[in-house]
C-alpha cells in the first residue's frame, strides 16, 4: 500500500485518440495529482507511461511530452518546482538535487505532462506508479506500487469545410480576387475555375481547423463572370463548395462582327488604360479616356509614308529626346531637359559642325573646347587641366607651350623660360637632362663640364681661373693635344711645381706660390 494518494485528470477530458492517416494528430495534457493524506512522508516517485499504438497505450512518441512538477505546502500556501527527469518511458519526480520530497500532511505535488500525442486506438491507458517512501528522513525507503487509469475515446469526424467566399463579389476585369474559407488541415484543397486549377498550400494552425485563403491575380484574375469550385479531399471523403464573382466590364476572348465594328473610341479594360479615338482620316492615341494628353503607341515595327512629330524619345525612362524645330533638330539628354544630349553614329557626313566642345565616347576621355580664334585641349570634360595632343605630324605657324616632353613615360622634358629653355631628365624632375644634336650654333654656352659622346671619352671641367682636362670617367688629369700652347702660367697638379711664361723666357718654381724657390728642369736634349 502506498503512503501517498494518486489522482489523474486530462485536458480534454476524456482524451481523443488520433485517427490513422490524419495529418493532424490529437494532443492533450495529463495531470497527476500526488497527495499526502497521512503523516509526514519522504518519497521519490516514478511514473511509467505505456508507449505504443494499441488501445492500452497513451502515446506512440514519448519525446513530444514536456514534463514539469510543482510542490504545494498546504500550511503556508507556498509553492516550489520539483525535478522531473525522463528515464526511457518513465518520469522520475524528486526534490531539488535528486533528494526525496518531504510531504507534510495535506501537501501535494502536481506532475504535468504537456503536448501528449495521443495513441491512435481508443481504450483505457494505465500509468504505473512506483513510490520509494519512508516515514522519517533517515529511514530506509520502501517501494510501493499503484496504478492510475485514463480513457481515450474514438476520434471525432473531421468537420466539413465551410464559408467559401470571395472578398469582393463584384469587381472590374483583371482585379485581384482573394478566396477564403474555414476548414481542417487534414483536407487537401484545390480550386478549379475556367482555364485554371490551383493547389492550395498547407497552413500550419495551432489546432486542426482554421482559416484558408488563396489570392488570384495577374493571369488568374477574373476577366468575366467566373464560378470558382473548392474541392476538399481526405481519404474517401470529398467536399465541394462554389462561389461566383461577377465582372462589371468583361473582357471577351473573341469577337466576331460580320459587318464591321463602328465605334467612336476604344479603351483598355483596366482603370487608367489608354484609349484611341477614330477621327476622319486617322486615329489619335490618348493617355486615358477623357484626357487631352497624348498617349504612347507601342509597336515592334511601323511603316508610314511620313512622320510628323514634335519630338521623338526612347522607350525607357530617362532616354534621350530629339526635338524638331524649324530648320533642324536638337538632341536632349532626356525629355523635358534643357541639357544637350549625345549623338552616337558610326559615321556622320555634315556640311558643317558647330559645337561648344568635342569629347571622346568613354568616361574620362579628353575634351576639345572651341573658343574665339582657336581651340584648347583638356584632360577630361569639365576639367581645367591641360590635356595632350597626339599627332603623327603637325604644321603650325607657331607653337606656344609651357613645356614639351616625349610620348613615353620617363621621356625628357624641355621647359620654356624667359629668354631660353631648360632640358630636364624627366617631366617634374629638377635633374638636368641631356641635349643631343649633330651641330649647335650658339652665341654662348654656360655649363659645368663638357665630355665626348662616349662614357670613356675625356672631359673638361670649368674652374674660376680656367679649365682642367681629365681622363674619361675618372678624376685623373688628361692630355691636351695642340700645335702650340700659349699661357700665362701652367700649374702642374695641386701643390706641384709650375712654369711661369714671361717676356724674358720661362722660370721654373717648386710650388705655385714660389715659397720653395726655383725648381729644376729635366730634359734629354736642349737645342738653342
Description:
With 528 residues, this protein is mainly β. 0% of the residues lie in helices and 41% in strands. The radius of gyration is 55 Å and the shape is flat. The mean pLDDT is 84.
Features:
528 residues; single chain; 11-stranded mixed sheet; 5-stranded mixed sheet; mainly beta
**Over all CA atoms, what is the radius of gyration?**
55 Å
Overall mean pLDDT: 84
Low-pLDDT runs of 5+ residues are: none
Helix proportion range: under 10%
Oligomer class? single chain
Distance between the termini: 162 Å
- Shape call: flat
Number of strands: 37
> What structural category arises from helix and sheet content?
mainly beta
SS strand fraction? 35-45%
Major sheet: 11 strands, mixed
Number of helices: 0
Brief digest:
With 528 residues, this protein is mainly beta. The protein has strands at 4-11, 15-16, 27-36, 41-48, 66-72, 79-87, 90-94, 101-103, 108-117, 123-134, 142-153, 162-166, 170-171, 177-184, 188-193, 196-199, 209-216, 226-234, 237-247, 265-267, 275-279, 282-286, 311-313, 321-325, 328-332, 357-359, 367-371, 374-378, 403-405, 413-417, 420-424, 449-451, 459-463, 466-470, 489-491, 498-502, 505-509. A hairpin with a 7-residue loop joins strand 29 and strand 30 (413-417).
